[in-house]
Design brief:
CATH architecture of one domain: Roll
Helix content: 25-40%
CATH class of one domain: Mainly Beta
Strand order of the largest sheet: 4-5-6-7
Number of strands: 7
Oligomer: single chain
Largest sheet: 4 strands, antiparallel
Structural class: alpha+beta
Number of helices: 3
Radius of gyration: 47 Å
Strand content: 25-35%
Length: 180
């Protein structure tokens, strides 16, 4: 019997808790407060700012040549050549020699040859050896050999400076001795 009493007490407590949840719980007071605040709060609408005035841009370069066209580049280069005050310039019309296809840093001097009246230098590129004399061209900067000694080859290169002018600079290749 005590078990039935306990179950009935628990059921009664659960019913009372369920009924307590059905009450107002102060919600009506909150609704009244919100309505009162809505009535007392003034409605303010901010004015929109005036739109910015648009001033159209007129492009004045439509009659000029396209800045990326090859014609404009060749016109600029022609103007540079006309205005060039330098007397130094490479001979672009001559036939290139085989060693002009390689930069100087891959060309090695490996020896010299002497024939009556002429000194020759032996220059190696990869596994090929070339025989050159004073006046031959080597390197990619129009380098002309000016002097050959037993230990080095001197040459002058013709390069463009920052202003686009042709200038001369000296370079040399020293004898590479095999170390065993």
């Amino acid at each position: 019997m005590t078990c039935i009493r306990t179950i009935s007490r628990i059921a009664a407590l659960l019913a009372m808790a369920g009924l307590a949840g059905c009450g107002d719980g102060g919600v009506q007071e909150v609704k009244q407060w919100m309505d009162e605040v809505r009535r007392q709060t003034p409605v303010t609408i901010q004015k929109l700012p005036a739109p910015k005035t648009f001033t159209p841009f007129v492009y004045g370069g439509k009659d000029e040549p396209d800045p990326y066209s090859p014609a404009k580049l060749s016109a600029a280069l022609a103007k540079l050549q006309v205005n060039a005050t330098s007397v130094i310039k490479p001979d672009l019309d001559r036939r290139k020699e085989p060693l002009e296809n390689h930069p100087l840093d891959v060309i090695k001097m490996v020896g010299t040859l002497e024939k009556p009246g002429l000194n020759y230098a032996l220059l190696q590129v990869e596994k090929s050896v070339f025989q050159v004399k004073v006046g031959n061209y080597i390197g990619q900067n129009f380098g002309m050999i000016t002097k050959i000694t037993e230990s080095e080859v001197e040459l002058k290169e013709i390069v463009r400076d920052a202003a686009g002018e042709w200038t001369e600079r000296k370079a040399k290749l020293e004898l590479q001795e095999n170390k065993k």
